[in-house]
């Protein structure tokens, strides 16, 4: 009897203590569930990236329409400062907006600032309250419309406009002319 034959007849250590993996019905269900969740996660990431790119493109155009450089919308905190500036708000409001890290009170402050900023931005482009609501709830779509649409940057924040109905079903908005130049005419000065 040879050495090999002698030890080949003994049972292996792994025969007694089998810690190997065997597939069961339960593990295949978990594997399928993991695959489905992974697919949903992958789809969600792709959709999120598409939405982020579209909103970035819309903000880029909004910034350029307002006379700012488009690349400023890429930098995270700085883009909010410039957006406040475009809206006619003080850039220092960013500190109130960043207070959103404080639970409840900070969230309410950030929400109030967001509503006020969206309203001021809409007014800066000659839009009304309906557009403010759109900027709050569907910002990607409304930034795209604002950036690539026909709307023009008419001023910062609260501006005075004159609206006129031309009969074609469209309300035209234009800034009131402000002539603050001094005159030397005595009749004009007498009427003041």
Protein described:
By secondary structure, this protein is mainly α. It has one domain (27-174). The protein has nine helices and two strands. A two-stranded antiparallel sheet has the order 1-2. A hairpin with a 5-residue loop joins strand 1 and strand 2 (171-175). Helix 6 packs across helix 7 (129-137). The longest helix is centred in the N-terminal third of the chain and has 41 residues, at 25-65. The protein is elongated and about 100 Å long.
Please tally the β strands and state the result: 2
Radius of gyration: 32 Å
Most strands sheet: 2 strands, antiparallel
Strand order of the largest sheet: 1-2
Brief overview, please?
The chain has 192 residues and is mainly alpha-helical. It has 9 helices and 2 strands, in the order ααααααααββα. The protein has one domain (27-174).
Give the SSE layout.
Layout: H1 3-8, H2 13-16, H3 25-65, H4 76-87, H5 94-97, H6 105-124, H7 129-137, H8 139-148, E1 161-165, E2 171-175, H9 186-191
Antiparallel strand pairs: 1-2
Helix pairs in contact: 3-8, 4-6, 6-7, 7-8
Give the key terms:
single chain, mainly alpha, two-stranded antiparallel sheet, 9 helices, 58% helix, 5% strand, elongated
């Amino acid at each position: 009897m040879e050495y090999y034959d002698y030890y080949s007849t003994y049972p292996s250590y792994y025969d007694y203590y089998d810690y190997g993996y065997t597939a069961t019905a339960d593990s295949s269900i978990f594997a399928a569930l993991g695959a489905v969740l992974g697919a949903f996660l992958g789809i969600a990431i792709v959709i999120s990236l598409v939405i982020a790119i579209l909103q970035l493109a819309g903000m880029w155009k909004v910034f350029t329409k307002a006379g700012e450089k488009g690349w400023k919308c890429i930098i995270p905190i700085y883009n909010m400062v410039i957006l406040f500036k475009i809206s006619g708000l003080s850039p220092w409001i960013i500190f109130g907006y960043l207070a959103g890290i404080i639970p409840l009170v900070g969230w309410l402050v950030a929400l109030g600032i967001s509503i006020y900023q969206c309203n001021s931005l809409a007014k800066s482009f000659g839009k009304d309250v309906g557009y403010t609501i759109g900027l709050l709830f569907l910002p990607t779509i409304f930034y795209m419309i604002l950036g690539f649409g026909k709307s023009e940057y008419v001023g910062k924040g609260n501006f005075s406009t004159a609206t006129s109905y031309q009969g074609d079903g469209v309300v035209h908005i234009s800034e009131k002319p402000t002539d603050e130049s001094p005159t030397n005419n005595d009749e004009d000065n007498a009427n003041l």
